[in-house]
Amino acid sequence: MTEIIDGKAVASEIRDDLTDAIETLADAGARPGLATVLMGDDPASQTYVNMKQRDCEEVGIESIHVDVDGDAPPEELYDAIADLNEDPDVHGYIVQAPVPDHVDYRNVIRRVDPRKDVDGFHPENVGRLVAGDARFRPCTPHGVQKLLESAGVELEGADVTIVGRSDIVGKPLANLLIQKADDGNATVTVCHSRTEDLAEKTRRADIVVAAAGAPELIDGSMIGEGAVVIDVGVNRVDADTEKGYELVGDVEFESAKERASAITPVPGGVGPMTRAMLLYNTVKAASQQEDVDVDLP
Ligand code: NAD
């Protein structure tokens, strides 16, 4: 029987543990605060920001939201960032991507105080992660690691194929999984849009992580017998539903399930973990800035 890895359940356990840590911080007069910054009015981004705010409320993190007009010059966003860097009640914040075309996201990220960079995207934090001394692990890769741990997947010496080389998923995950650490020690192959014979690389893997943003790119024939499949992809495809679309992953779930020993569903797999790990990083940021020790899950 193939195990369906329940991301909602694992995320819920992590949130419970974080709630305890947040109480410890609050008792010490240090309630964690997370800010979200949204430039423009992209509906998907608005939904993500709303979810992050709701998550905060549920676990007792103070949440603040900053809107910046989508047509404003970049300096307006930079000013909002400078304010958040100075605000002692904000321990962490995220600038929701994508930003409008006239703004260079890299210039935005460089302005974020690395101690408050709970996405883990600032070059200083990227460097620390690569050096094996991460301050904040980016939320999605960290969530994937926690899912693998929860499913009891042996990483040491495992062959992992990651499909996707983005700065927010593929690259940081590859770096984390090769670290000399209990949640690393794997041998990692990173595939991307120029990779030749993708199926050969996924088929030989003990663990396949799909993060390509390509609906159902990976089917059962590309999965080795007994492999573990983690599907990061979230893609909207037209469907005969009330909303006119449905969400599918980068993996063709039904055929992949036939071959895999364990697999994450979409939705309900990696998504809830990404959200939980943002709360984790916020609690970690508050603990560091307020100098209060807490147990992190
Ligand atoms: P991205 O577009 O930045 O990167 C996609 C990567 O996949 C690129 O490196 C590209 O080279 C590679 N790729 C694309 N098509 C390919 C193909 N046919 N064969 C091999 N490689 C291919 O995407 P991203 O931001 O890393 O996101 C990837 C997917 O994960 C998206 O569907 C996104 O919505 C989803 N996502 C989900 C979560 C979550 O919490 N569940 C978080 C982040 C991203």
From TrEMBL:
> Which key words are in the record?
Amino-acid biosynthesis, Histidine biosynthesis, Hydrolase, Methionine biosynthesis, Multifunctional enzyme, NADP, One-carbon metabolism, Oxidoreductase, Purine biosynthesis
Q: Does the keyword Oxidoreductase apply?
A: yes
**Pathway(s) this gene product operates in, as recorded in its UniProt entry:** One-carbon metabolism; tetrahydrofolate interconversion
Q: Does this UniProt record's set of keywords contain Cell wall biogenesis/degradation?
A: no
**Start and end of every Tetrahydrofolate dehydrogenase/cyclohydrolase NAD(P)-binding domain?**
138-289
Which E.C. number(s) belong to this protein? 1.5.1.5, 3.5.4.9
User: Catalytic activity, per the record?
Assistant: (6R)-5,10-methylene-5,6,7,8-tetrahydrofolate + NADP(+) = (6R)-5,10-methenyltetrahydrofolate + NADPH; (6R)-5,10-methenyltetrahydrofolate + H2O = (6R)-10-formyltetrahydrofolate + H(+)
What residues does the Tetrahydrofolate dehydrogenase/cyclohydrolase catalytic domain cover?
5-119
Domain of life here?
Archaea
A GO molecular function for this record? methylenetetrahydrofolate dehydrogenase (NADP+) activity
Q: Which InterPro entries match?
A: Aminoacid_DH-like_N_sf (IPR046346), NAD(P)-bd_dom_sf (IPR036291), THF_DH/CycHdrlase (IPR000672), THF_DH/CycHdrlase_cat_dom (IPR020630), THF_DH/CycHdrlase_NAD-bd_dom (IPR020631)
* Example of a GO biological process term: purine nucleotide biosynthetic process
**Cellular-component GO terms for this entry:** cytosol
* Function of the protein: Catalyzes the oxidation of 5,10-methylenetetrahydrofolate to 5,10-methenyltetrahydrofolate and then the hydrolysis of 5,10-methenyltetrahydrofolate to 10-formyltetrahydrofolate.
Assembly behavior:
Homodimer.
Q: Which HAMAP family match?
A: THF_DHG_CYH (MF_01576)
Protein name, per record: Bifunctional protein FolD
